[in-house]
Structures are given as structure tokens and as C-alpha cells.
Amino acid sequence: GANQSAVKGGVTPLFAAASAGHADVSQILCDARCDLNEHADGVTPLMVALQRRRSDVVRVLCQAGANVNEVLPDGQTALLFAADRGQQDAVFWLCEAGVNLDCARPDGRTALMVASWKGMGRMVTLLCEASANLDTIEETGRTALFLASVQGHLEVVRELCEARANINLTGCDVSPMFAAATSDHVHVARFLLALGARGVCETVSAHP
């Protein structure tokens, strides 16, 4: 049969199909057992599909068994990349493929934190339902709830609270409620207070 790993112009057929968004061709190549995790210029076909926003190809690669948890030399992962760019369909397929939901950037920020900071409500719901850790603390001491609160994203705050995020947890000197209040997001502060959130002097610190 044809060599599915043959290189033309430095690009293999799977890389070309992923880049162009040809899901059917990608499926044929996957069925032919081509290397799903080959590298070119430091990236894999999965990352190329994400970079080009080819969600159908992401689905094919995830279902075929591509490595969804590979950490690239720059610390990037498929989930972090997709979350940062708001690619909800891609995040769904990555979750279905068993991606590590709590992988983090060098600064400790996870996909849930990224989505919370940006106010991506549907993605936050997806990650919560997939059982992402709600109370991870990044290196600056902030949680997903803190990030959503300080940005004034009430619906995201509501979703995180319904998923039972710790409303008082923080690794810095300011609680999510206080951060919302001092950022003039009164609606968020009022919502958290109604749930029993504590003020700045009563913050539950993550560090003894």
C-alpha cells in the first residue's frame, strides 16, 4: 500500500490534512495507522488542527488515540491552547479523549482558570462537568472563582459556585468577594455574600 508517512515538501499527509481541515482524509490516514504523534517544527498534527481551528480534525485525532496530554517544549498543551482560544468543540473532544483537565501553564493557570478569567461560560460548564479541579491555586494565589469574580463574570461565578467551588479559598490576601467588590462588580460581590462569602479579614488562606 501507499506509504502514509511519505513526506512531501517537509510535510506528511496527516499534517497537510490537519492543516487544511480535511477530516475525511485524516480519518483514512488514521485508519491506515499513520503516526498520530509525529512532530514537525515542534508541533503534532493535533496541535496543527487546533492552531487552524479544525475541530472536525481534532475530533478524528482524539477518537483515533492521538496523545492529548503531550507537553510541548514551550509548556503548551492541547487543552490549554484550545481553552485560551475559546475552542469549545475542541475542548469537548479533548475531554472525551481523557485529557488531563488540570494541566497548567508555568504560572500555574489551568484551562478552567483561563476560561473563568475570559468569561467563557459554556466552556466553564463543560470543564466543571468533566470534573476539573475547581480549587487549584495559581502562583499569584488566585483560583478560578477569584479570576471570574475580579473580572465581573457573574454567570461564570454562579456556575463555579453551583459546582461547589470553595467561595473563600485564596492564596493571597484578598478573597474572591472582596476582589469583586473592589473592582466595582457589586452584582458579583452581592451574589457571593448571599452564599456566605467572607470578607478580606476572614479570608481562608491556602498557605498556613
Please describe what this structure looks like.
- It is a single chain.
- The protein is mainly alpha-helical and 208 residues long.
- It has helices at residues 13-20, 23-31, 45-51, 55-64, 78-84, 88-96, 111-118, 121-129, 144-151, 154-162, 176-182, 186-194, and strands at residues 169-170, 204-205.
- It folds into two domains: 11-100, Serine Threonine Protein Phosphatase 5, Tetratricopeptide repeat (Alpha Horseshoe), CATH 1.25.40; 107-201, Ankyrin repeat-containing domain (Serine Threonine Protein Phosphatase 5, Tetratricopeptide repeat, Alpha Horseshoe), CATH 1.25.40.
- It contains twelve helices and two strands.
- Helix 9 packs antiparallel against helix 10.
- The radius of gyration is 20 Å and the shape is elongated.
- Strands 1-2 form a two-stranded parallel sheet.
- ANK repeats lie at residues 41-69, 74-106, 107-139, 140-172.
Structural class: mainly alpha
Q: What's the pLDDT, averaged over the residues? A: 90
Helical fraction: 40-55%
Q: Element order, helices and strands?
A: HHHHHHHHHHEHHE
Keywords: ANK repeat, Repeat
Protein name: ANK_REP_REGION domain-containing protein
ANK repeats: 41-69, 74-106, 107-139, 140-172
Pfam families: Ank (PF00023), Ank_2 (PF12796)
Key phrases:
208 residues, mainly alpha, Serine Threonine Protein Phosphatase 5, Tetratricopeptide repeat, elongated, disordered C terminus
SSE topology sketch:
Blueprint: H1 13-20, H2 23-31, H3 45-51, H4 55-64, H5 78-84, H6 88-96, H7 111-118, H8 121-129, H9 144-151, H10 154-162, E1 169-170, H11 176-182, H12 186-194, E2 204-205
Parallel strand pairs: 1-2
ANK repeats: 41-69, 74-106, 107-139, 140-172
Keywords: ANK repeat, Repeat
InterPro entries: Ankyrin_rpt, Ankyrin_rpt-contain_sf
